[in-house]
Design goal:
Largest sheet of chain A: 7 strands, mixed
Largest interface: A-B, 20 and 20 residues
Order of helices and strands of chain A: EEEEEEEEEEE
Number of strands of chain B: 10
Helix content of chain B: under 10%
Shape of chain B: globular
Oligomer: heterodimer
Number of helices of chain B: 0
Number of helices of chain A: 0
């Protein structure tokens, strides 16, 4: 199956700093990647759809200036949490679909757990 | 609106069989996925149904009835490692997956 890799798996930062999370498709090219956030015991919440070579599409209620998404190549998308605050502490997960695959199966990265002190 | 309804939590015994039900309402429908998510980890794919009926894959089977907006995941010969959350995720007309909070399955010896 297709492999999506995220880095870092765990990150702890001080309030007010910025954190960058990388999402890579290792064995396929992903023109579109999806960024989710998941709080404990809650459902996955789609934050934004990352499009290679163009601006990301953000879901309602997600601040574009706070969650910067860059999809500069067909295998890499990055999410930067700017001026992080404790309420941004969450599990961030990226995913992608394999182009041309019949099903819409999403392949997920390992996830990145962010703790803001 | 779009919504998913699954039990919050279920408990079963090792070696037994458990069925996790899911009802859904979506704007359009392009199939339904079941994912498994262990605590602290990302979801992993279990099954995909787009036509009515039962799809069997080893110890796991998934059923879909589109007219009823209903699906279930059947797990046989339960093992301790099956303790996880199981997410029912239908795909709407825009090919977006709709996520619920999932069903936390607890397996007891």
């Amino acid at each position: 199956g297709a492999v999506v890799s995220q880095h870092p798996s765990w990150v702890i930062c001080k309030s007010g700093t910025s954190v960058k999370i990388e999402c890579r498709s290792l064995d396929f090219q992903a023109t579109t990647m999806f960024w989710y956030r998941q709080f404990p015991k809650q459902s996955l919440m789609l934050m934004a759809t990352s499009n290679e070579g163009s601006k990301a599409t953000y879901e309602q209620g997600v601040e574009k200036d706070k969650f910067l998404i860059n999809h500069a190549s067909l295998t890499l998308s990055t999410l930067t949490v700017t001026s992080a605050h404790p309420e941004d502490s969450s599990f961030y997960i990226c995913s992608a679909r394999v182009p041309g695959q019949d099903t819409g199966e999403l392949f997920f990265g390992e996830g990145s757990r962010l703790t803001v002190l | 609106g779009q919504n998913i309804d699954q039990p919050t939590e279920m408990t079963a015994t090792e070696g037994a069989i458990v069925q996790i039900n899911c009802t859904y309402q979506t704007s359009g429908f392009n199939g339904l996925f079941w994912y498994q998510q262990h605590a602290g980890e990302a979801p992993t794919f279990l099954s995909y149904n787009v036509l009515d009926g039962l799809e069997e894959k080893g110890r796991f089977s998934s059923f879909l009835s589109r007219s009823k907006g209903y699906s279930y995941l059947l797990l046989k010969e339960l093992q301790m490692k099956d303790s996880a959350s199981y997410l029912c995720a239908p795909m709407d007309s825009n090919y977006q997956l709709i996520w619920g909070a999932g069903t936390k399955l607890i397996i007891k010896p």
